[in-house]
């Protein structure tokens, strides 16, 4: 099949638009949350940067249409909450939809139309979105259960502002080194948003 007449061309533009909008939504969430929950806001920033890279992967497949318009019809979410737990929950839904439904479908279509390299990118990015969803879910669960900054066992906590590390059953209300509030603390096993999306 010719690429210009393929469903894959439209799917790439849908994916590009979706990743671009996800990045923007996550940047908005970061701004809303950074005063009260700095660590959560950094999770949104970190993920937004990865969504930008995904958008670029999809966009680069469309280079032969440079200077042209690609028409698509799709639905995109509006997440205007200021509640951290709600924003995390919505992010889980969006990432899970991409990982389990949207991108696997796009990959199948690309393979059927003879675009194996594009199918592979959809499959690989689908796996990344699954990781994103698990990470967001870990934070959402901790926040919903009131355990984002405390634990029923001793844990190692790190201040994302200065790097101070402390072992305790809760994060300090204020960092003893730099004075940053508790919102800057995260479990060390979740710092840099470990690949499994949570602590063991």
From TrEMBL:
Required cofactor names: Fe(3+)
SUPFAM superfamilies: Ferritin-like, Rubredoxin-like
Domain Rubredoxin-like: 154-188
Origin: domain of life: Bacteria
CDD domains: rubredoxin_SM, Rubrerythrin
One term of GO molecular function: iron ion binding
Key words, A-Z: Electron transport, Iron, Metal-binding, Transport
Domain Ferritin-like diiron: 2-147
PANTHER family assigned to the protein according to its UniProt record, in alphabetical order: RUBRERYTHRIN-RELATED
NCBIfam families in the cross-refs: RuberyRbr
Protein name: Putative rubrerythrin
Annotated organism of origin: Ruminococcus albus 8
């Amino acid at each position: 099949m010719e690429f210009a007449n393929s469903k894959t061309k439209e799917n790439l533009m849908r994916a590009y638009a979706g990743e671009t909008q996800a990045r923007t939504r996550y940047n908005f969430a970061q701004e809303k949350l950074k005063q009260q929950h700095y660590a959560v806001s950094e999770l949104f920033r970190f993920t937004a940067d990865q969504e930008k890279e995904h958008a670029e992967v999809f966009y680069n497949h469309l280079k032969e249409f440079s200077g042209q318009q690609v028409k698509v019809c799709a639905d995109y979410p509006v997440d205007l909450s200021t509640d951290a737990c709600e924003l995390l929950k919505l992010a889980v839904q969006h990432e899970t939809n991409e990982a389990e439904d949207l991108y696997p479908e796009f990959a199948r279509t690309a393979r059927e139309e003879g675009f194996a390299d594009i199918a592979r990118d959809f499959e690989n990015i689908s796996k990344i979105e699954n990781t994103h969803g698990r990470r967001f879910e870990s934070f959402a669960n901790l926040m919903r259960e009131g355990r984002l900054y405390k634990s029923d066992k001793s844990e190692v906590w790190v201040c994302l502002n200065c790097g101070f590390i402390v072992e305790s059953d809760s994060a300090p209300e204020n960092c003893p080194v730099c004075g940053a509030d508790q919102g800057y603390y995260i479990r060390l096993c979740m710092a840099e948003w470990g690949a499994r999306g949570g602590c063991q």
